[in-house]
User: Fold this.
Amino acid sequence: MPVETNKPNHLSAAIAVLTEQAREIMSGSFKNVDRIFSLTDKRKHSPEIAELAESFGLMAVKVEAREYALEQTIAELREKKAALEESNRIRTQLASIFISVVLLIAFYTFVLGFLNSGFIASHEFLKDIKGYLSRGLELVTLLIVIRIVVASRLPLKDFGITLEGWKRSSLEALALSVPVIGLLFLFKGVANVYYPGLFREAQWVNLGYFDFSYIFYLGVAPLQEFITRGTVQSTLTRLFSGRHRGLMAILVTSFLFGSLHVYSSLNLAVVALLTSWLWGWMYNRQQTLVGVSISHFLIGDMAGLMGYWNFF
Assistant:
């Protein structure tokens, strides 16, 4: 038999429970919602109280669900805001790195142009140490770029300084460098037949050119790749947006790399531009400086031993 629940004291107790829970819900607490559902038992409470408690309880559940969804949304918005702020911070750093390196490269190019000017050529002492001054300038430039990269506190991997996938990139570098060197042999062979005298010597490879500079190039090539591909191209790839950002980064970096060789000759600048497309594509594919450095060293040294440096 149902318990008589329409007595004033019982009704007042039920209303007190609902009132107390309403206040807790308004304060954001839902831990005692079960007390509302305890009033929905029609065997213990009147139908009116049970129905009111059930409606009140369902409302509390919906409010709690909305509160939870709102908290989740706020948390997601905070995460997105933090990610956006971090992205803006990184983009600002990358833009600063790019501007600093470009200004540094421009200064480097002007100094190299001065070293190849008539003023230097007219002074034997300066002419004799020109090579050392050039390498010293490269070293100073490298140290400044390293300082800029380290100061950014970005992962070194973002600048291609990683051994991840070095075996694959090394094999790809060899596979791509051999055809290029083959084209160099082909061009020289054709030139010797149809344009004799274009090269100083007719032999394919002249080991007489080999000196310390060819060994030193083993360090120069990676340093040049770090400045151009690792720093400039990596920075531009992250600064640009869209599907073709990698292509745009290769384009800008290649023209910049080619301009670095204008001081020597326009021919060398054009060749540097073309090879930079190859190395830029390789770096964009491999995301490590290992492969492009190997290819740069092999092609550069072989071009020198074949007499191309004299030709340029």
Q: What stands out?
A: Residues 8-77 form one domain.
